[in-house]
Design goal:
By secondary structure, the protein is mostly helical. It is 56% helix and 1% strand. It has three domains: 3-30; 44-139 and 166-186, no CATH class; 194-267, no CATH class.
Length: 268
């Protein structure tokens, strides 16, 4: 065996050892996965049965992003809202109930910070909140329908808070997008200029920048529906068809570059 062959053999041996080590490490983790999943399921059930009902009944009327209520700058209908807190700082410190502002508030430890203000929680309910925070403050994004109290207080959809059916699609999208941005204290990007919009829509639909004549026709069109008119115009051009063929060909080619193109040209 020459030197090169020995080096190759050594490399193969090292690679095999790495694979064996990886598989061994993976096997040591597998038994823990069902346990972790079971623990998470228990914590989720505890939240749905003992924490969320109280938040809905006693807190969301003053602290809910869905209802656009943020007394003291505090939202309590998401884990992000609790972690961010309001004017007085974070509401919870997962794993440390005694250091969490929410626990101080529900125990009426501060005359200026008492929650709920008119109807104190019972000692049992306070204990549930302490347990929940000490266990990590699991807060599922969506209601788990299997919880025993789900049907009686389900809060996930409130028809009165939904936008009317007559709303334009872009208004609905912007409305709910802005809600999420507000939770994260993010400032939305300003609307695109007419020139930027024209360039983007033409690149998307026609696969090319707008021509000078298209630019002038659009920018000097006084119609209130000029965006819709321009999209309709693009959809009737040969460039639009070619762009869709390229997009579908790329998505469907499955490693057979170009072989679907003749079919798409016929089908579209």
């Amino acid at each position: 065996m020459n030197k090169l062959q020995r080096q190759k053999s050594l490399c193969m041996l090292l690679l095999q050892l790495k694979v064996i080590a990886f598989l061994f490490a993976l096997l040591t983790l597998i038994p823990a996965l069902p346990i972790q999943a079971a623990e998470l399921a228990d914590e989720t059930a505890f939240f749905e049965n003992n924490i969320r009902p109280i938040l809905v009944d006693s807190c969301y009327k003053c602290h809910s992003i869905k209802k656009n209520k943020s007394k003291g700058g505090l939202f309590l209908d998401s884990r992000q809202g609790l972690m961010k807190g309001g004017d007085n700082g974070p509401a919870i410190k997962p794993g440390h109930a005694a250091e969490s502002l929410l626990i101080s508030a529900i125990n009426y430890e501060d005359e200026d910070l008492q929650m709920p203000p008119d109807d104190p929680l019972t000692p049992e309910q306070m204990g549930h909140f302490e347990t929940w925070i000490n266990d990590g403050a699991v807060f599922p994004d969506r209601l788990i329908a299997s919880s025993k109290n789900a049907e009686s207080w389900w809060d996930e959809i409130e028809p009165e808070s939904l936008l009317p059916l007559s709303s334009k699609p872009e208004e609905v999208i912007d409305h709910y997008t802005l809600q999420k941005l507000r939770i994260q204290s993010l400032i939305p990007a300003p609307p695109a200029t007419e020139t930027a919009w024209l360039r983007r829509i033409t690149l998307d639909l026609a696969g090319r920048p707008p021509t000078p004549s298209e630019r002038n026709d659009y920018l000097f069109n006084p119609s209130k529906t000029r965006k819709e008119e321009f999209v309709n115009y693009l959809s009737q051009t040969s460039c639009f068809l070619e762009q869709q063929i390229e997009e579908f060909n790329w998505l469907l080619m499955d490693g057979k570059k170009g072989k679907l193109k003749p079919y798409l040209q016929t089908a579209l």
